[in-house]
Structure formats: C-alpha cells, structure tokens
Amino acid sequence: MLTKGDDFPIHQTPEPIAFSGTDRNFYDRYFFNGYQPDGTEFFAVAFGVYPHLNIADAHFSVIRDGVEPSNGIAADLTFEGRSFPIEEPRFIYRNGPRAFMDYTRLTVNVRVSGWIEVDGLRRELAPGSVGTRDRSWGVRPVGAPDAQPVVPNQIPSFFWQWTPLNFEDRSVFFHVNADPDGEPWNTRAVIVPDGAGPGGGRHTGEAAMEDVVMIPGTRHIASATLSIPLAQGSAKVAFQPFLTFLMRGIGYGHPQWRHGGYKGELAVEREDIDLSGVNYLSPENLHIQALSHVTLTLPGEAPVRGMGVFEQLILGPYRPYGFG
User: Fold this and answer.
1) Residue 17 falls within a domain, yes or no?
2) Would residue 11 count as lying in a domain?
3) How far apart are CA 100 and CA 98, in angstroms?
4) Residue 240's closest CA among 290, 292, 288?
5) In angstroms, how far apart are the furthest CA atoms of the chain?
6) What DSSP designation does 295 have?
7) 222: domain CATH number?
8) In 3-state terms, what secondary structure has residue 49?
9) In this predicted model, what pLDDT tens digit does every residue of 194-221 receive, in sequence order?
10) End-to-end CA distance of the chain, in Å?
11) Cα(259)–Cα(245) distance, rounded to whole angstroms?
C-alpha cells in the first residue's frame, strides 16, 4: 500500500512506509509534558500512530485548580530542547515466549513557552517553565487486548519508575524496569549539562532508588532518594512529590480511551477528573506522574534545587516494597 510518504528517501526496509514489520502492535509515539516554575499547573500531550491498525490518536490533559480536563481545550506551546536527546537502552521484555514489548526511546528535557486555554480562560506559561519530551517506537500492547492467554498462566506484574528532572544548568534522568523480586531488567541514569551533544553527560546502569517511603494505602511513593554512583562518589537526588497527574488523562490505562483503540472515523471526548476524589488503587489510576521538588547533591558541591517528574507504575507483586 503506497502513501505520499513513499516519495521521500526515508525507507529503512524494502517495504512501503505504510508497513512497519509484521507485528500488529507496532506504534510510533510522541510525548511532552510541562509545568510552571511554582508547580501550579501541569500538562501533558501525547500523539500516537499505529500503522497496522490504521489508527492515530492524540490526548491533551492539564491540571488546573485541582481538576484534570483532558479534551476541549486550546493551547499554543513551544518546546526547546536543553541538550541533544539521550537514547535509553532498548526495551525488550517477554512473558514466557511471547514478546510483550520491544521498543526504543529517546528523551530530552525542554524549556516551554506559550499558553493554555480552558473554558475561555487563557493563561500564559510563566518564564522558566520546563518539561520533558520523549519519542518511542516499536512494539507494545496497543488497541484491543490479546484474547489468547499466556501459557502457562502468570500473575501480571510490571514495575516502572522514570524520573526526568530539570535543574538550572543540567538535567538528570533515571529509569528502571524490574521484576517482582526487584531485579532490574532495564535501567539507566544520566546527568546531562545544558548544551551537551550526542553521547554527552555521565551515563551509568548502577543507580538505585533508596530510602523509599510509600503513601499509605497506595502504590505511590511519598519520598525517596536516588543514588547515582560517580568516580568521585555518589550523587544523591532527594524527591518530594507534591502533585499527582493521572496518566489515564493521556490514554495510558484508560478503560475507554486506551492507545490505539478504534472509535470510528473521528471521535473526540472531554473528561474532567476531580483529583480530590480519586481512588488511587483503581487499576486505571495506578500509573501516575508525580510532580516533585528535587534536591541534587554532587560530591564536593553545594546542593541545588530543581523540579521534575517521578513517573510510577506498579502492577502485581513487587516484593521489595511489600506488595506480594
């Protein structure tokens, strides 16, 4: 099947651009978030293309005055990268013999300017607003769930933490996927100065989240410290989460608006979520980004303050945190 894209010299396989291998779950996705310097407003944007489902979808969600409207808004935003993006290690994970995910992701922190309007009220982003952009593409579950169960039957489990952090002159990135016993199967920490080029910054696969305190009755973290080993000693990042963004607002885990779901030729919907009444143990509310005040302490340097996101998703057992 030919498309207009085939007129451009961008092919990486012998097939037309419309075909991305043979896995129906192939996706190609953009993600952005941003937040005011004082943390009073947080927003996220997502756009996904699913070539073998012949579907594209987009989400925009903003927290304003304690409510998270996810559609029916207007915005004009500009994102400026603070350095060259980092490439995270390739994510490959199997449930038994079945490939659950196989994708690549790049991430860069950004400075953000522009405005967001909700119900006729337009607010300019304050100078110093920052956020994160990521791009990912490959295979992960999208669209209708697979009706064929994994054999032998397994208890579903998934542990994920991701922390893109903005400081005045640098960015800190950490992520970890781990098994139910806490053994990482994909992890990386990077400290990147502003203006760094490809491969710039300090990279390590040995960082770890320590001194974790959970919010009682939830699967979300109240405080923690990230330890990043360096040649001159460990860097420490202390987290103080203060605002919770539900990732269902941009389609992640949403019961009706999951990524790649078929809704007809064109479907648009708005949902207002009162964050004061959310049950954080409901499956659709487990995946969050917690906007956090962060303090970075490097060996021999004075502590510096910043702000960033602590993304969290714990499904099923995770024994290091007491989830059996």
Assistant:
1) no
2) no
3) 6
4) 292
5) 60
6) E
7) 2.40.370.10
8) strand
9) 999 999 999 999 999 999 999 999 999 9
10) 48
11) 18
Residue 298 structure tokens: 């490097």
Q: Is 47 exposed, middle or buried (0-12, 13-18, 19+ CB in 10 A)?
A: middle
Range(s) of the domain holding residue 117: 27-139+157-262+269-321
13 assigned to some structural domain: no
- The domain total for the chain is 1
- 242 occurs within a structural domain: yes
Give the tens place of pLDDT for each residue, 278-322. Answer: 999 999 999 999 999 999 999 999 999 999 999 999 999 999 999
Rounded Cα–Cα distance for residues 110 and 34 (Å): 8
Other C-beta atoms within 10 Å of 53: how many? 19
User: Torsion angle of alpha carbons 279, 283, 284, 286, nearest 10°?
Assistant: 70
Geometric angle at alpha carbon 51, from 47 and 56, rounded to 5°? 30
H helix runs in the chain, sequence order? none
Nearest to 53 by CA among 260, 204, 198: 260
Q: Find tokens 């696969």 and name the residue.
A: 205
**Cβ contact 35:129 at 8 Å:** yes
Q: Choose among 181, 4, 169, 204: nearest CA to 83.
A: 169
Q: How far is residue 75's CA from residue 177's CA, in Å, rounded to a whole number?
A: 33
Q: Cβ atoms within 10 A of the Cβ of 274, count? A: 9
Amino acid identity for residue 243 in this structure? L
pLDDT band at 70 (very low <50, low <70, confident <90, very high): low
